[in-house]
Amino acid sequence: MKKIIVTGALGQIGSELIVKLRETYGAENVLATDIRQTDSPVVQGGPFEVLDVMDAEKMFDSAKRFGADTMMHMAALLSATAEAKPQLAWNLNMGGLLNSLEASRELNMQYFTPSSIGAFGPSTPKKNTPQDTLQRPTTMYGVNKVSGELLCDYYFDRFGVDTRGVRFPGLISYVTPPGGGTTDYAVDIYYKALEKGSYTSYIAERTYMDMMYMPDALQAIVDLMEADPAKFKHRNAFNVTAMSFEPEQIAASIRKEIPTFTMDYDVDPVRQKIANSWPDSIDATAAKEEWGFTYKYDLDAMTRDMLEKLKQK
Ligand code: AKB
């Protein structure tokens, strides 16, 4: 049975990952940490500690005291926030990553951290983007993510830390809203569809980006961490995706459930520029072949579930 410490446990992925890990490995085996404390189920439902990922000593102490054998480092600033505060993003995204890798090296922990489609740039092939390809991102977030992928490879090669990771696309969920991402429109649209019956998209028509429903993303993390590494040719940056769509397609999917739904556009130049620099669709063959990556939800299945779950909230 794993003993897992998770950073960024109150964030968009963390808050659902904690629930999934506690169901899978037992509540007492998952230590949730975040820079703030709230009365969320993450804090109430099992061990929780306040932890700033910039505090290397406290991170090491918390992991050691808990007897953790696995580190899942989720704390990070997303793309739009990182673009607004690039120096903070470098310090937090890279500093937190290095501290968590160091704790993993010292305590011999297995390690997971997500990379992103943001690790690609305008010179990357845009369609069916290969696993191994040109990566020259033009955003601070992308620079952080490519550096992170390389650093994780380095910790495996140099120190033997069992580092693993995926390049997540935009993640869509009804539990914790994302903050400061470029793909957030694809979450927001469901809330507004139910609240107002309409949505104003900050991403322009015909802008394709990869996406995935949160339950599939969580399962991918567990599957990758449980996978036999004998088949690995890669480790830290597996492309994973479940769908690629542009705003009109998600609107059409919502219209199948809410026929009166309407959408217009007020494009945000900053987030549009970021989106334009990312792939239209990525190729997940390596993840499928090397550890059996799979997913359950396509766009319409996700839309039905999102709307149903949001109505119950
Ligand atoms: C973002 O939009 O910044 C994230 C991501 C794709 O990494 N959702």
Characterization of this structure:
The chain has 313 residues and is an alpha/beta fold. It has two domains: 4-168 and 213-239, 3-Layer(aba) Sandwich (Rossmann fold), CATH 3.40.50.720; 170-211 and 242-281 and 296-312, UDP-galactose 4-epimerase, domain 1 (Alpha-Beta Complex), CATH 3.90.25. Helix content is 44%, strand content 15%. It has helices spanning 14-25, 41-44, 56-66, 79-84, 86-107, 140-159, 185-195, 214-226, 247-255, 269-276, 285-291, 299-312, and strands at residues 4-7, 30-34, 48-50, 70-73, 110-112, 115-116, 163-164, 166-168, 170-172, 198-201, 209-213, 238-239, 243-245, 262-265. It has a six-stranded parallel beta sheet, with helices on both faces. Helix 3 runs parallel beside helix 5 and helix 5 (86-107) runs parallel beside helix 6. 2-amino-3-ketobutyric acid is lined by residues 78-79, 116-118, 141, 168-170, 181-183.
